[in-house]
Specification:
The protein is α+β, with helices and mostly antiparallel strands and about 650 residues long. It is built from 21 helices and 16 strands. The longest helix has about 60 residues, at about 215-275.
Length: about 650
């Protein structure tokens, strides 16, 4: 490489180092590299001189940068003061900047405690000693006490050996525990000259000996002045902030009451208009859900839903259904009843399983409850609105119940005539039913319910309540209650559901038998007779408090049922064996008949079948595998023998 080119390259290297802010040792390495590269004489001297000049420029740049950082910190601090919101945050920022700009291990700020008459640590940064952070200094004690007493800055390269300060055991112990050696402290002054007042002190300290320069003292004094302004401003603003807070609180109360009054007026007008227009309970639920922006369901006194869930703007809603998502089982209904009782006892809505529950009362009678979900944070005004809506709900429920009871009495007369004389005037019965909203020519299920004599008077009312909200009808007849529900379920399922809910409503076991569906006066009367016989059978079988139908009672159902479905009973009982014989060409049904016909004797059965006794055993094992291990129990054996006899009769 040519001589001038080599020198120029090293000079450019120095400029690159300056531009990148490289450390000082990188500059010395340029001359070393030039020497190793064969540069000598004047060229090497020129490079070394350029290196020294670059280091001086670097030092000047770093000084300017440090000064710029100091000015930036002061401007930032001034900005913090201009936007003063939190005094502690501003003081922490000042202390942190003091530590950063002076490059010390710690920085801290002390303020006087006027009540205690001493000085305490307000803010620390970089401190690790709890003892030091909790130090309290009397006026004149230690370096900080002297700064506060004289209103002048003090610095020491080694506090522990400096005799200018009044050392105390507590202060020295704290300084030693923190490991501090060099300390610089400046006063926080309000005012100037002799009229200035010291309101605290700002410190920067190192854990190694150090001499603080005048620039560093001046910088810390500037930060201390800012801290003093911040404290004074905060004190000046305290009264204003308190007044503003009180005013804001008063305004908030006024706004809250105004909003509550407006919402109360809106809800009152809306609910009143709803009642005057002949609205239903479901309409109340929809209005309350809209007003409270949640999901509202009305339940009866037994915890069963009276309305679909109404969804407000803020409600969770349901997926593909409007039916309530909870409180539909016996345990859930009982839990809801307990929550409603708690609401009645406290005269307020209560929280249950994340939902608000409010009792719907008529005096002390529990008519039902309102359940609100989707509003876990129901505040005072909205909570009162929810509670007041229960009053409107109770009014509508009372009106609805009165109408239902009146209609049920008239419908009950129709049912009585239907059961006592279905053939006297069938057309007239159908016409009367149509006038009452009951189409007797449409298929209906028929349920018959009974309970203990001492609570029988409750059953009729419970039946009305059970059918409440639907198009069903009920009537007392011969010590039982007949129900014609508006349901598409099977007789057994409908009877089971009715037994469960009626038992809950009556508070005692209620047995329910179902029959049908049946259409027309004569068929409905026959279905009632079948259900009555089934009810008697359930009672004899010890199934008190249960529900069922003739089709679920096996051979008893054949005897009790109006149509005497013999073929259905045989198929239900022997069907698996008949199917197996047809598919495999076996003789399981014949073997079973021989086994029962021989009184369960394997020896006699094998003689009648003309097979080996092991064959009989194997066939009986196969029967057990198909029918189950209890096929030979007394109850099942009786049904199997009856089915075998009926099949034999049907084949003859």
């Amino acid at each position: 490489m040519p001589k001038n080119t080599s020198v120029a390259a090293h000079l450019r290297r120095l400029l690159d180092l300056l531009a990148s802010g490289a450390p000082a040792e990188d500059f010395g390495a340029v001359a070393t590299e030039a020497r190793r590269g064969g540069v000598g004489g004047d060229d090497l001297a020129e490079i070394e001189q350029a290196t020294q000049a670059a280091l001086r420029v670097r030092g000047a740049l770093r000084q300017h940068q440090r000064r710029e950082a100091e000015l930036t910190a002061l401007f930032d601090t001034a900005g913090d003061l201009a936007a003063l919101r939190d005094l502690d945050a501003v003081l922490r920022s000042i202390v942190r900047r003091a530590r950063m700009l002076l490059g010390t291990d710690t920085a801290y700020l002390t303020l006087p405690d006027e009540e205690a008459g001493d000085t305490f640590m307000r803010v620390t940064d970089g401190s690790v000693s709890e003892l030091f952070q909790n130090l309290r200094l009397q006026l004149g004690e230690g370096l900080g006490g002297l700064v506060a007493q004289t209103a002048r800055p003090y610095a020491t390269p080694d506090y522990r050996t400096d005799e200018r300060f009044h050392h105390t055991h507590s202060i020295d112990a704290g300084v030693l525990d923190e490991g501090l050696v060099a300390i610089l402290g400046v006063p926080l002054l309000l005012g100037s000259g002799s009229g200035g007042k010291v309101i605290g002190a700002l410190f920067a300290a190192d854990r190694t000996p150090r001499t603080f320069s005048p620039d560093e003292v001046a910088l810390l004094c500037s930060l201390a002045n800012h801290a003093a302004i911040a404290i004074d401003t905060a004190k000046a603003m305290t009264d204003a902030r308190v007044a503003l807070a009180e005013l804001a609180e008063a305004n908030a109360v006024i706004r809250e009451r105004s909003a509550a009054m407006q919402r109360a007026e809106e809800s009152h007008d809306r609910l009143s208009d709803l009642v005057l227009r002949g609205g239903d309970v479901a309409d109340v639920a929809a209005a309350v859900a809209d007003l409270l922006e949640g999901d509202v369901t009305v339940f009866d006194a037994g915890g069963w839903p009276l309305t679909p869930t109404a969804h407000g703007a803020g409600g969770a809603g349901t997926s593909g259904t409007d039916e309530p998502k909870s409180f539909v089982g016996t345990d859930d209904a009982a839990a809801l009843v307990r929550a409603a009782e708690e609401s009645r006892a406290t005269a307020h809505a209560v929280v249950h399983d994340g939902r608000w529950v409010c009792a719907v009362l008529a005096g002390q009678e529990m008519l039902g409850s309102l359940v609100l979900s989707g509003r876990p944070d129901l505040d005072g005004p909205d909570r009162r609105l929810f509670e007041r809506s229960s009053v409107v709900t109770s009014l509508l429920l009372l009106l609805r119940r009165s109408v239902a009871e009146a209609e049920n009495r008239v419908r009950g007369d129709l049912i009585t005539d239907l059961l006592t004389a279905p053939d006297r005037d069938p057309a007239g019965l159908v016409a009367r039913g149509r006038n009452l909203g009951i189409d007797l020519n449409r298929p209906h299920l028929v349920l018959v319910a009974s309970t203990d004599a001492d609570v029988r008077d409750r059953l009729a009312g419970a039946a009305v309540q059970y059918l409440f909200g639907g198009d069903g009808v009920s009537a007392e007849h011969a010590g039982t209650v007949m129900l014609v529900p508006d349901s598409g379920a099977t007789p057994g399922d409908a009877a089971g559901a009715a037994a469960e809910q009626l038992t809950h409503l009556v508070g005692a076991p209620v047995t329910v038998a179902g029959a049908g569906p049946a259409a027309g006066p004569r068929a409905l009367a026959d279905a009632h007779a079948e259900a009555t016989r089934c009810l008697q059978a359930l009672t004899v079988l010890g199934r008190r408090g249960a529900g069922g139908s003739a089709g679920e009672l096996g051979f008893l159902g054949v005897l009790l049922g109006e149509d005497h479905d013999v073929e259905g009973f045989v198929t239900a009982t022997l069907g698996p064996l008949l199917e197996y014989d047809d598919r495999r060409g076996t003789q399981l049904v014949r073997t079973l008949a021989a086994y029962f016909g021989c009184g369960g004797s394997l020896t006699r059965a094998k003689e009648e079948l003309h097979v080996h006794i092991n064959t009989v055993v194997q066939r009986l094992d196969r029967i057990q595998a198909i029918l189950g291990p209890d096929w030979n129990s007394p109850e099942n054996a009786l049904e199997l023998q009856l089915a075998l006899r009926l099949r034999l009769l049907s084949l003859s």
